[in-house]
Amino acid sequence: MQRLKLTFENSQGNTLSGALELPDQKPWGYALFAHCFSCGKDIPAATRISRSLVEKGYAVFRFDFTGLGGSNGDFGNTNFSSNVSDLVAASELLKEQYQAPSLLIGHSLGGAAVLAAAGHIPEAQAVITIGAPSDPEHVSHLFSDQVETIEKEGVAPVQLGSRTFNITKQFLTDISNHNMKEHISNLDKALLVFHSPRDTTVSIDEASKIFTAAKHPRSFISLDQADHLLTDAADATYVGHTIAAWAERYVSTSPFHKESLPSPEKGHVIVKEENKAFLRHIKTDHHDWLADEPLALGGGNLGPDPYEMLLAALGTCTSMTIRMYANHKKWPLDDLDVELSHSREHCQDSAECEQSGQQIDLITRNITLIGEELTDEQRQRLLQIAGKCPVHKTLENKIVVQDTLTHKE
Hints:
Elements: E1 2-9, E2 15-22, E3 30-34, H1 44-55, E4 59-63, H2 80-97, E5 103-107, H3 109-117, E6 126-130, H4 147-153, E7 155-160, E8 163-168, H5 169-175, H6 180-185, E9 190-195, H7 204-213, E10 218-222, H8 233-247, E11 270-273, E12 280-283, E13 288-291, H9 306-329, E14 335-346, E15 359-370, H10 376-386, H11 390-396
Helix pairs in contact: 1-8, 2-3, 9-10
């Protein structure tokens, strides 16, 4: 697993801090996680759920809402609407630099926030709520003894957990102005609701309201003995693993839409930018795939990098050429492997070097020929044939790249 620290600006210009956790292999998809009210991205439940999803192949982005954790801004000036706006900004970050989130996951008030934000994130295919209220106004019970003071004075300090926050009148006004039933009924995405019957912070009746308001496909899973914050590690791990299994039915693992590119003529290749970083969609007449750069270079590691594809072209052509020749000669070649690497070495003795310190590109090609009955002479001939593969000849020829510019409105 890899963890990257990411920052981004929200609509108010505040810099928000987040953590993107990625599996070691290409992610099945990206999930955006919204933490509970007044908590932070690194509370145990959020961390455990995220890492359980990473174990199953998903990338998960968590961030601190405005004024919390490592994010700038004043929590006292935030409200439910600003949380929703922060989520949309986070999804845009993922879309620009990696891949738009296919899963939206929210815990407690974060669950209500992802339900409200889902309509603004069209790429999301599924929404998951965990111990969520059906309406953001539900959180007012946490400071019900201060509501009168807030209404009268405009602001009052409220103890939430171990911290004190200023809750303003505009916060109360905002949470009362959201039509969550409309958001939920118009979700148009798969919905999974987790809730515990023993939750004393948010009643399981709230889960029933969410589930009833939603249209199919919708699912409900009871968390039995769990508390609201999923303090038992086993409960959080179960939620993460269950999300991954459930999402297989509803979430496409393809990070791009194949229909978005027309099929080019045979022998032509189209390369389309999929984000503002390095992710690229490549299409030929019958095939398409992704290219990217490694995480260390600022990419998402969603596909091979350009030099890996160059080596792959040479390696596959080498393998095909050897096989064609062996089959034509009816030689006992049972199998073959081709392994390649690329590096640059200083050209010290070559007469072609005109400048001191000039480098040449060196491709090392290791060919393994498998066949006990192959003679030494046959092996040496097949090695010679490897150097005659068309891609090999192309790379050793003088190559001219001719550029043209096309204008699009």
